[in-house]
Amino acid sequence: MFIAEVSNLHKTYNKLLHPVKALNGVFFTLEKGSTIGLVGPNGAGKSTLIKIMAGLLFPDSGYVKLRTKKPLGYVEEEPVFLDLNVYENIMYFAELHGISREKIEPLLKNFGLAEKKKEYPVNLSHGQKKRLALLRAILHQPEFLILDEPFSGLDPSMALWMRNLILSVKKRGKTICISSHILSHLMPICDRIIFMNGGKILMDYRMKNKPLFRIFYKGKIPKDIEAEEVKDDSLLIRCERERIPEIVEILVKNKVKIYEIRPEGIEEIYEKLYRGGKNE
Ligand code: ADP
């Protein structure tokens, strides 16, 4: 059952003066209860995609269909707050969602904000602002939560707190979409990682997928070999380990010379996709 369908999104900024193509045909569907990570270097198009999904930006073409009963929860990369203190900021949204005052106190405590109740957001640390924004976004227990770079600028202990909080939301069966330019933050949380660059999806990787193997070869790959990727000197095959001899046999019968076979993990995929990038 899909909670979101993203179809052929295109978006160009500054069309008249200096056009920047931020999205160039993005498609995917998001299953209910899944946690998806959007990875890519700065400028890959993650925030643009997220803003379109959150309904804050219109695409030039394509569409996003959401199947949720409640409004989605959205945490922007640099949260903006009302010019009210922490407690009033949260109460404003609590009242909008019909949440009683008594429920707010324990939440503020859980989010480490109880002692900052009277403080104005401008005086909060970066981590406290991130927590306040997250609390605001999940107050009404949305079915679908979108987080734009939730780990950016957080120290390791705060990043761990954020990860555990996201995991607790995930455990309640919610669907979550998280963008990050750092793969290691997403790996422990996500069921699926979408690698983006240049406004496109480079690879859609499901954690529970069969493993990937890279085969280094010379020759002409026969058509009946189903590869994820075929390069001049290597191809990427998704299959159980037990099928490797069978695949090698087909290749050899077709006069393809095999030089090396290596399992390919998600880190290797990241390395290859963004090789030469100075993204981390
Ligand atoms: P990411 O979140 O992956 O860093 P963005 O979606 O923010 O990527 O940006 C994609 C591209 O669009 C980049 O080249 C960026 O400079 C450009 N861009 C983003 N927002 C704007 C904007 N408001 N005006 C002009 N260009 C923008």
Tell me what the structure shows.
It is a single chain. By secondary structure, the protein is of the alpha/beta class. The protein folds into two domains: 2-207, 3-Layer(aba) Sandwich (Rossmann fold), CATH 3.40.50; 212-263, no CATH class. 29% of the residues lie in helices and 30% in strands. It is built from eight helices and 13 strands. A six-stranded mixed β-sheet has the order 5-6-7-3-8-9, sandwiched between helices. The protein has a four-stranded antiparallel β-sheet with strand order 11-12-10-13. A hairpin with a 2-residue loop joins strand 8 (192-197) and strand 9 (200-206). The longest helix has 16 residues, at 156-171. The model has no long low-confidence stretch (mean pLDDT 92). The structure holds adenosine-5'-diphosphate. Residues 13-14, 20, 22, 40, 42-48 line the site of adenosine-5'-diphosphate. Adenosine-5'-diphosphate (ADP) binds next to strand 2 and helix 1.
Characteristics:
280 residues, alpha/beta, Rossmann fold, 2 domains, six-stranded mixed beta sheet, four-stranded antiparallel beta sheet, 13 strands, 30% strand, elongated, binds adenosine-5'-diphosphate
- Low-confidence blocks of residues: none
Shape: elongated
Largest sheet: 6 strands, mixed
The CATH class of the largest domain turns out to be Alpha Beta
Identify the strand order in the major beta sheet.
Answer: 5-6-7-3-8-9
CATH topology of the largest domain: Rossmann fold
